[in-house]
Specification:
- The protein is of the alpha/beta class and 590 residues long.
- It contains nine helices and 29 strands.
- Strands 1, 2, 3, 4, 5, 6, 7 and 8 form an eight-stranded antiparallel β-sheet that branches. The protein has an eight-stranded parallel barrel with strand order 17-18-20-21-22-23-28-29, surrounded by four helices.
- Helix 3 packs parallel to helix 4 and helix 6 (484-496) packs parallel to helix 7 (531-543).
- The protein is globular and about 80 Å long.
- The two termini are 30 Å apart.
């Protein structure tokens, strides 16, 4: 978080796109797409951005081709959803022309090309165990001009069974207790004998009506649900997925909507030193930046307070600790943040894992801290090739980190505050690319297995909505940092959950586990968002109003935990403009 990481993200993003390998399609399979060659003189069968049309020239074959102009504010996407069979491999192909043109499957692989003449793009994907539909998309890039596509195919066996019902709409959450979640849904078209309710991808119960209550769940846990209708002819495709969480969570001691900030406690970077005692009362969580390893793979974390030669006015350890105690008496939480931009932490061995637990515990005990913030950036987390299931990771640096965090949580008990501050590249980009399952950058989505494994212990996830390239949201459009739209789309992915590229569905988090991460000033990081736009995003997310053209897939987030910023020091440098704008506004939210 110490300085801009935009160039790293864009470079890695380009490697991810450019490194994907095209896989030839299988011969003799059925093309499931409607109007695949656009020869009917229309875009019928496709859902396209405004301005999409068919043209008679240039074409690759037949009488027509697709032509879409990508504007400065839109990628010009066209998509089509087809029925597919679970656990089945499909081949995708398109001939494209333009610079650049992307071909992909939502939640799965994608590829791209840039050419002045028609070029073949191809890939393959395998459906999940309960997957019954797939969405193929084509798009250009912001301001990239007109792209063309022709002879598109999605080959493989069609889904659905003649005479079976259609898929129900996504279920809605009903009554929730500490051990149960209620669901309701609308009856689909066709004759229906009953419904099968799938929990986390596994059949949980069968009912005859349009509601179900799932009981026997553990308190404060999150699950994903789909519903399929069936009759004597067969089962419908599954509905869209919804996430739900049980109650009974331990009281974190935080306000419903909190202000979270990083305090430069070990270095100076031009923003000036702020003594712990001088941090205003508006800040509810104070993250001490940073604890860093002696070497990247040692696991031995040290927290060295800023020396007086670098930080004018730095207080003594005794005064620092006394000020922490005073904050805690006021109900504030003070955490040690591990990592940061320069603190690369790679727990490659169990020895490093154990050193991490021991050294972090020593820091927490010395200063009497409330918990830990995981701010792993750069190359701290990366997925090995073949590590494709975020639910069962195999990469040592990921497995050892999960183990270490669980050990620390068990050591300090339910009051231990655990937060995480990943970049979008390590979380939301996992929707489109997942490191262990692609030939691109193996860091994409690498935080997802850590978040998933610790979701029931996680206090707050505040993704850095800055220093980021454009990221595809659940609307399959790219969103760019610096405005309300980016925060809305990125946060909606955390609430609704997301299909991880090439794998399973990542269930959404509880409202109280989600916060936005934004720079305090234009000096603090790329992607600064003006207070009015931040508050527009907060209003949309918590109340469902003022969302612009975006539709919340996960519904409103009235219990949104709040705002994180880099940093308290930069806010002090700017005259507390961030705190003064947002702390009172948070108090007005539901």
């Amino acid at each position: 978080m110490r300085r801009s990481r935009l160039s790293l993200f864009l470079a890695a993003f380009a490697v991810t796109l450019g490194g994907l390998v095209a896989v030839p399609g299988s011969a003799g399979a059925a093309n499931l797409l409607v109007n695949p060659g656009f020869d009917a003189g229309s875009t019928g069968g496709w859902e396209c951005a405004s301005g999409a049309a068919t043209v008679a020239s240039p074409v690759r074959s037949g009488a027509g081709a697709l032509a879409v102009t990508a504007s400065a504010a839109d990628t010009g996407q066209c998509s089509q959803t087809v029925s597919v069979r679970p656990n089945t491999t499909y081949a995708v192909e398109a001939w494209v022309r333009g610079n650049p043109v992307y071909l992909g499957v939502t939640g799965g692989p994608s590829t791209w090309a840039g050419s002045g003449d028609y070029t073949r793009l191809a890939l393959s994907f395998t459906t999940g165990a309960t997957q019954t539909s797939a969405q193929l998309y084509l798009h250009g890039w912001y301001g990239g001009g007109t792209y063309y596509a022709d002879d598109v195919s999605l080959d493989g066996p069609g889904g659905g069974t003649p005479g079976a019902p259609t898929a129900p709409a996504a279920p809605k959450l009903g009554a929730v207790t500490s051990t149960s979640i209620g669901l309701t849904w609308t009856a689909p078209a066709g004759t229906v004998t009953g419904y099968r309710v799938y929990e986390d991808g596994t059949l949980r119960t069968t009912v005859t009506g349009t509601s179900a209550t799932l009981t026997g769940l553990s308190p404060c846990t999150t699950h994903s649900y789909t519903v399929a209708a069936y009759n004597t002819a067969g089962e419908s495709p599954c509905s869209a997925t919804v996430s739900g969480s049980t109650g009974g969570c331990t009281n974190s001691g935080l306000p419903k909507h909190a202000l979270i900030g990083y305090l430069h406690a070990s270095f100076a970077n031009g923003s000036g030193y702020v003594r712990m005692a001088d941090v205003p009362d508006a800040w509810d969580i104070i993250d001490l930046a940073f604890g860093e390893p002696t070497t990247p793979t040692s696991g031995d974390i040290r927290f060295n307070r800023c020396p007086a030669t670098e930080c004018a006015g730095v207080e003594s350890d005794a005064d620092f600790i006394a000020a922490i105690r005073a904050k805690q008496v006021q109900g504030k939480k003070v955490l040690i943040s591990i990592g940061g931009e320069k603190g690369q932490v790679q727990l490659t061995t169990t020895t490093a894992r154990d050193a991490f637990v021991s050294s972090v515990s020593a820091i927490i005990d010395k200063y009497g801290l409330d918990g830990l913030d995981v701010d792993f950036e750069g190359h701290s987390l990366s997925l090995n090739a073949g590590d494709t299931d975020f639910r069962n990771p195999t990469t040592p640096v990921v497995v050892n980190l999960i183990s270490a965090l669980k050990t620390l949580k068990a050591r300090y008990g339910s009051a231990f505050v655990l937060t995480m501050a990943p970049e979008t590249f390590f979380v939301q980009v996992g929707y489109q690319f997942y490191g262990g399952s692609s030939a691109g950058d193996q860091r994409t989505g690498a935080y997802l297995p850590v978040i998933n494994a610790l979701r029931d212990s996680l206090t707050v996830l505040h993704v850095q909505d800055y220093n980021s390239g454009p990221v595809m949201g659940l609307d399959n459009q790219y969103h760019t940092m610096g405005g309300a739209d980016f925060h809305i789309a990125m946060t909606d992915m955390l609430k609704a959950g997301l299909p991880v590229a090439g794998g399973a569905f990542f269930p959404g988090l509880r409202d109280d586990q989600i916060a936005l991460g934004v720079p305090a000033t234009v000096n603090a990081g790329n992607g600064y968002t003006a207070p009015a736009d931040v508050q527009t995003a907060l209003t949309c997310l918590t109340k469902g109003t003022g969302c612009g053209g975006y539709t919340l897939r996960g519904g409103t987030v009235p219990g949104l935990r709040g705002l994180m910023t880099w940093s308290i020091n930069w806010d002090h440098f700017s005259g507390w403009t961030f705190q003064n704008a947002h702390a009172p506004f948070l108090d007005t939210l539901p």
